[in-house]
Structure formats: C-alpha cells, structure tokens
C-alpha cells in the first residue's frame, strides 16, 4: 500500500491549470495534541503539485521529482476533510513550480500554504 492509498487521498480535479485533492482527517495523521501533523500538510502539497507537474508528461520518457518544498502552517486542523488546491506558478519543460493552498472543506479555514519546485527528468530504466 502506498501513502496515497493509506491516507485516502482522492483526486477531485486534475488538469494542467489546477489540481484538487482531498483527504479525511483521521487520528493517524494527528500529533499527540490532536491537530494535523505538519508533515501531512507537506505530503498533501507535494502530492498535489507532483500530480500537476506530471500532467501531460509521457511517463515512459519523463517524470517529475521534487527539488524543494516550503510549507507554511497557517491554522490548525482537528477534524473534517482537507482540500489541497495546486496551481502552477511556472510550468516549464525542465522545472515546474506550483503553489498549493490547503483548507478544511467544512469550514473553509486556510490551514497551510506551500510552494513546490519539481524538476522534470528522463525515466531511467
């Protein structure tokens, strides 16, 4: 089982202009204090940005790999569903940068903001 399956991450939208993912908040993704672990925000952001960077690539020839991710935790989340919305800042042939904002679906509360930079590399077989 991979992280996407384990965390029940679902794709709501996948285009070159926008990626929207959702993930239910469960006890397994919380800190001992009962709030979502910051690493989950980063994982959700990197997944959304990587899906976007991957969109339109011929995966037999190229794949995106993360170079850098910055996540700013804005507000805590304790229950509900997280929604990550990723949009490209720059979608080049070799480097892509995506802005990802995460919200609690039920309240609209903005919980984190991330920037992901990915490099497009040839598939090595």
TrEMBL record:
Residues 33-103 form the Thioesterase domain. GO terms for cellular component: cytosol. The keyword Zinc does not apply. Keywords: Hydrolase. InterPro entries: HotDog_dom_sf (IPR029069), PAAI_dom (IPR003736), Thioestr_dom (IPR006683). Its EC number is 3.1.-.-. It comes from the Bacteria. The keyword Hydrolase applies. GO terms for molecular function: 1,4-dihydroxy-2-naphthoyl-CoA thioesterase activity. Gene3D superfamilies: Hotdog Thioesterase. Belongs to the thioesterase PaaI family. This is Aromatic compound catabolic protein. It comes from Weissella cibaria.
């Amino acid at each position: 089982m991979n992280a996407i399956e384990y965390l029940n991450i679902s794709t709501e939208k996948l285009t070159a202009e926008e990626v929207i993912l959702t993930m239910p908040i469960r006890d397994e993704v919380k800190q001992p204090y009962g709030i979502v672990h910051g690493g989950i925000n980063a994982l959700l952001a990197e997944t959304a940005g990587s899906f976007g960077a991957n969109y339109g690539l011929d995966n037999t020839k190229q794949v995106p790999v993360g170079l850098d991710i910055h996540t700013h935790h804005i507000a805590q989340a304790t229950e509900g569903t997280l929604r990550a919305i990723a949009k490209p800042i720059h979608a080049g042939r070799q480097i892509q940068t995506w802005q990802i904002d995460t919200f609690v679906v039920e309240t609209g509360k903005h919980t984190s903001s991330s920037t992901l930079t990915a490099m497009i590399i040839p598939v090595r077989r």
